[in-house]
Amino acid sequence: MPASVPSSQVRPPLQPQDQIRRLVWKMAIATFLLMAIGSATRVMNAGLACPDWPLCYGTLIPRQQMNLQVFLEWFHRLDAALIGLLAIALVALSVWHRRVLPRWTPWAALFALSLIVFQGALGGLTVTELLRFDIVTAHLGTALLFFTTLLLMGMALLPYQGTGNVGKLPWVSLTAAILVYLQSLSGALVGSRWAVHQCLAGSQLCGVMNTHLFGMVPASLMTLAVVVLAWRTPALHPALRRLAYVAGGFLLLQVALGFATFHFHLQVEPLTIAHQAIGAALLGTLVCFTALGMRDRQFTKTIASAPPSPIPTPQSPLAT
Q: How far apart are the C-alpha atoms of 115 and 84, rounded to whole Å?
């Protein structure tokens, strides 16, 4: 007979909130990879490697036409389809367990699903409209919005006990996240219009390129403000402090990659791909900081609004 497993080693079944949170984090990781693959697809000029949509050369797996460019575009679509299926599962689980989940969970899951449906439509239009720059920019913008939605859900479902010392830091990080998001859209516009190449070669679209370069300043300053304020805030929650330092590291790396890609005129594909990926990672870190910081502020308000505890006296039953 097999040996019995000690009761101390038997893992309790996952609670619905834990299941939803794990699914959300898996989707967030898959979305981050999807954006990195999408960046590689654009940089490698593989956006139209599959001339039709949603199939590729009329088949699910184009074995005969498969090369690096076709593989990038095909795998990009495959990852997107997987995330779409996971989004449907997220909605189903959220609705099924709605009685034991926060009330906002099913609505957030529905919002995420609507974003992925809209994202799929934009993905089809990027092919049928031959990589029109405004559609390509909207495609990335929607992907980042979907990514941040998943991160907000994951952080809101995470067990967390605030310290009440966060102050106005969440508003600073929220401002930084918005600026980084807008900077990401500006970068997508620069890439989709090949503004760097056209400006350096023929002084065209220099306004688009310069807008992106100057936009780096406010986004960087607000991110640095988050790092400095987190460093100077006493008794800040360790998770918030770590997130602030990670954001500072991503910022330094992103600036270095930006200068490198500009110096090499976007001719080194891995640098360009890494530049966009680190930008998404920076945005995600700021969003996570904001979500936890807002929960910390809510904890402060809850403590402040709680009625004072009665002080035991010798005549009170609480003193016995």
A: 10
| CB-count exposure of residue 183 (10 Å: 0-12, 13-18, 19+) | buried
In whole angstroms, give the CA distance from residue 318 to residue 296.
31
CATH of 162-303, one of 3.30.310, 3.30.1450, 1.20.120, 1.10.150: 1.20.120
Q: Which residues contact 25 (CB under 8 A, 6 or more apart)?
A: 150, 154
Nearest to 228 by CA among 169, 316, 145, 274: 169
Assess contact for 215 and 183: CB atoms under 8 A.
yes
**Short-list 317, 285, 276, 43, CA closest to 141:** 276
- 59: CB partners within 8 A, 6+ apart: none
The predicted pLDDT at position 227 comes to 97
pLDDT for the residue 316: 42
The predicted model scores a pTM of 0.88
pLDDT digits (tens, 9 = 90+) for 212-258: 889 999 999 999 999 999 999 988 999 999 999 999 999 999 999 98
Q: Which of 14-18, 34-38, 144-148, 196-200 has the lowest mean pLDDT?
A: 196-200
The residue extents of the domains of the chain are 15-159, 162-303
DSSP bridge partners of 56: 59
Task: Tell me the mean pLDDT in the region 62-83.
Answer: 92
Asked if residue 320 has pLDDT above 50, the reply is: no
Residues 6+ apart with CB under 8 A from 73: 41, 46, 47, 48, 49, 50, 56
Separation of alpha carbons 282 and 217, rounded Å: 15
